């Protein structure tokens, strides 16, 4: 029998944790405790000059636009630009927490060390062990610990004698002034870093082992995601050629930049949204390079046979999905290409454990976390139920990943924003 007043733990007070608290409280859950290791809300957006949880740098602006990113019940300030800076995003989350009076539910400077599932008399419960050794038991756990803070370092044959860093530790371009820098990867981190570093370095290369679409931040004068929404009514067979034609019209051919063109649909990989990379390439400030074959001292051998010397390699090779507070034998998606969670939230075996924000949309995460948390709060309050065939549905959702996206760990939690939000809203 479900307790009348369930105790719910929320892990992390980034935007996914904040919207979890808000939705739980609004649904009528009385005992909500959010554990946050940091001393403030905002998660990834709580920028500091030193390396910590946050992966944003001094110059980060979001790539999903203001109108497509804001929570539906809390618009971004009218004076914000189309693509706010990390400081504006953090201020927005802080005012969200104040507006909905969420901070009273958060225990700051409190790191969760271990979470254990208790199974007593058929009822699931969760023991949370804090770093200071204290324990507390909860009926439900909402995981909102983020998935962009644990670097996935690449491995190459040979060894490099210069500095070998990950974009997670990139905070500003200054340490790279006057150096020869090779950025590896052309996701949003790689392109942001290559552009910024190219303002101060003596030479910047960007190594791409596979081709990547680079979308501009604006199409036809509006943010790219707004343009995509405006054309969403079109069937895919019409939309795709229109978008390709528009891209070609704005950018020309990839070969004009020394880049390879991807040979798959525009929506099959996570979008890189950057209006400056192609411009910097055509100004001779960023130099496209192929994948890395091997390293030898200060030399990098590329797959096309070229060799160059560098002072620094900056691996912008993405992040690992980790839950360090679980035993690896319990939940471990670190090396998974597909993750079997129904609607990317519900675990087929652990029905009182929820994954909030474990998605990488072609759009913004925040409104999706909001809808996930709303659905979960309804479940906890007994207003909505999990389907009988949860296991089969979770498996189907996992398999849909390789059908819809380029295979690999990079896309293990990728979703198409609009259809995914629709599938959550259908349940709501
Ligand atoms: C450079 C960069 C730019 C990005 N830009 C965009 C964008 O434009 N649009 C977009 O939608 N997404 C973007 N993202 C993705 C980003 O992850 C999300 O915007 C958002 O921050 C996810 O929020 P979250 O709450 O799920 O996770 P996070 O923001 O990572 O928050 C997780 C929280 O959990 C806490 N925590 C973790 N482990 C523990 C523990 N053991 N105990 C207690 N607390 C814990 C952390 O301290 C943190 O506060 C970007 C990511 C990066 C790296
Ligand atoms: N300004 C912003 O708003 C901003 C800035 C940065 C990041 N972000 C967001 O943060 C998230 C993470 O982005 P990210 O760019 O850090 O990671 P990412 O999207 O996972 O991209 C990683 C890149 O590194 C390449 N790569 C991975 N492993 C490699 C290896 N072993 N050798 C060579 N290349 C390798 C990938 O190529 P393959 O395609 O071949 O795997 C890809 O180009 C995304 O959601 C992104 O949108 C946003």
Provide a brief overview of the structure.
The protein has 428 residues and is α/β, with parallel strands linked by helices. The protein is 26% helix and 21% strand.
Architecture overview:
By secondary structure, the chain is an alpha/beta fold. β5 and β6 form a beta hairpin. It has two domains: 253 residues, FAD/NAD(P)-binding domain, CATH 3.50.50.60; 163 residues, FAD/NAD(P)-binding domain. The model has no long low-confidence stretch (mean pLDDT 96). The protein starts with 6 loop residues before the first strand and ends with a helix. The strands form seven sheets. A five-stranded parallel β-sheet has the order 3-2-1-7-21, with helices on one face. Strands 9-20-10-11-16 form a five-stranded parallel β-sheet, with helices on one face. It contains ten helices and 23 strands. α8 runs parallel beside α10. NADP nicotinamide-adenine-dinucleotide phosphate binds next to α4.
How are the secondary structure elements laid out?
Blueprint: E1 7-11, H1 15-27, E2 31-35, H2 66-69, H3 86-99, E3 106-107, E4 112-120, E5 123-130, E6 135-138, E7 140-143, E8 157-160, E9 163-166, E10 180-184, H4 188-197, E11 203-207, E12 214-215, E13 218-219, E14 222-223, H5 224-230, H6 236-251, E15 272-273, H7 277-282, E16 287-289, E17 292-297, E18 299-302, E19 307-309, E20 312-315, E21 353-355, E22 360-361, H8 366-380, H9 390-404, E23 414-415, H10 417-427
Parallel strand pairs: 1-2, 1-7, 2-3, 7-21, 8-17, 9-20, 10-11, 10-20, 11-16, 12-15, 22-23
Antiparallel strand pairs: 4-5, 5-6, 13-14, 17-18, 18-19
Helix pairs in contact: 1-8, 8-10
The structure holds flavin-adenine dinucleotide and NADP nicotinamide-adenine-dinucleotide phosphate.
The site of flavin-adenine dinucleotide has 34 residues, from helix 1.
